[in-house]
Design goal:
- With 354 residues, the chain is an alpha/beta fold.
- Helix content is 42%, strand content 16%.
- It is built from 13 helices and twelve strands.
- It has a six-stranded parallel β-sheet with strand order 2-1-3-4-5-11, sandwiched between helices.
- Helix 11 links the parallel strand 8 and strand 9.
């Protein structure tokens, strides 16, 4: 008789606990113990059961596990659409890192659609009503974000990828030190001989992360006694065309280097330079932020500040699971250091044009 395919019984139905028990020659309780309390079994019995589970492709019922443990092993994550003209690869990398870390911990990420236009409660209420999730990961945290107080009031564990920028921050978070990244970019440019270093970011107060990255540029410029007046360009949105317009006064004002708050803004700066017959890296140095896949593919390659997204994903899962296990413990906040990746757009000393 032909052997049944993995994940299905001979009659085509799902593999059951009883089938695994029969294959291993043990009781159903022993199989259950092998899954939920392996330390209760002798090593040889545990190995025999696990071999039967693997051979038959048995997957325990999530509903049954939830009833036994009170945990669904599900983490909710609201995913927003990526607007045209922007780069969504950074959040894609974060989501992949988050999923890997959750898998290693025995959890799954449950995605749901969040509307564009900033943080909102849409989707969170519905998900909690329809599914048993153990907690949430929040991204895109901004001032006035309603999700944090709403979840905290209901006792739902959550972790933020990004600081809670409100005056009374709630909950745990993991973030990347944007100010440290742009500070390092200025230090690198100063070492290359640049003194007229501009910053291309977003409107003041429109983004906590944007203001943080601007602060690092300002801090480093002041440390070196370099002028900042007229050196800050503001793009209304994270969009290549808007960045192109915002970069014009910086280039026309004589900047020899531009530090951008994102790789998308840096792309807009590339366009402005080429419209004026200038070459990024040769005539004006450019440094982006995020180290998106595009950065390496550009010509010349874009120097950029890289976020440690794999570490962010691991720490988000670690802190969320710690919050689930100890709901009343003090909040933990973790600020990770990014790294500057130097490519041809900011790899050579400033030419002597005297």
């Amino acid at each position: 008789m032909p052997r049944s395919s993995k994940n299905s019984s001979p009659n085509g139905g799902p593999v059951t606990l009883a089938m695994v028990a029969a294959r291993a020659g043990v009781s159903m309780q022993t199989v259950s113990n092998a899954i939920n309390s392996p330390d209760m079994l002798r090593p040889e019995t545990l190995e025999r059961v696990r071999r039967a589970i693997d051979e038959m492709g048995y997957r325990p019922s999530r509903a049954a596990q939830t009833l036994r443990s009170g945990s669904s092993k599900l983490i909710g994550y609201g995913i927003q659409p990526t607007p045209p003209g922007t780069a969504g690869a950074v959040m894609d990398r974060f989501l992949h890192a988050l999923s890997d870390a959750a898998d290693e911990a025995g959890y799954r990420i449950l995605l749901f659609a969040s509307p564009p236009g900033g943080p909102s409660l849409e989707g969170y209420e519905e998900l909690l009503a329809q599914h048993e999730v153990d907690g949430f990961v929040l991204s895109g945290t901004e001032r006035g974000d309603p999700r944090q107080s709403w979840l905290a009031k209901r006792g739902v564990p959550f972790i933020g990828f990004g600081r809670m920028w409100s005056g009374r921050p709630l909950g745990d978070w993991v973030d990347v030190d944007g100010a440290c990244g742009t500070d390092a970019a200025v230090e690198h440019l100063v070492a290359l001989g640049h003194r007229r270093i501009a910053f291309l970011g977003w409107e003041r107060g429109s983004s906590g992360a944007g203001d943080d990255r601007a602060e690092g540029w300002l801090r480093a410029m002041r440390r070196h006694g370099l002028p900042t007046r007229g050196r800050r360009g503001q793009s209304i949105v994270n969009d290549i065309e808007a960045a192109r317009a915002a970069a014009k006064p910086l280039i026309d004002g004589g900047a020899t280097a531009v530090v951008a708050a994102s790789d998308v803004l840096a792309l807009g700066c590339y366009q402005t330079l080429r419209e004026r017959g200038l070459a990024p890296g040769r005539d004006v140095a450019v440094v982006g932020f995020d180290d998106s896949p595009t950065a390496e593919l550009l010509s010349p390659g874009l120097s950029s500040v890289a976020q440690p997204l794999e570490e962010v994903g691991r720490e988000c899962v670690r802190l969320l699971l710690a919050r689930i296990a100890a709901p009343d413990s003090p909040p933990e906040r973790l600020l990770l250091e990014p790294s500057l990746i130097v490519r041809d757009s900011a790899g050579a000393p400033l030419p002597d044009r005297a």
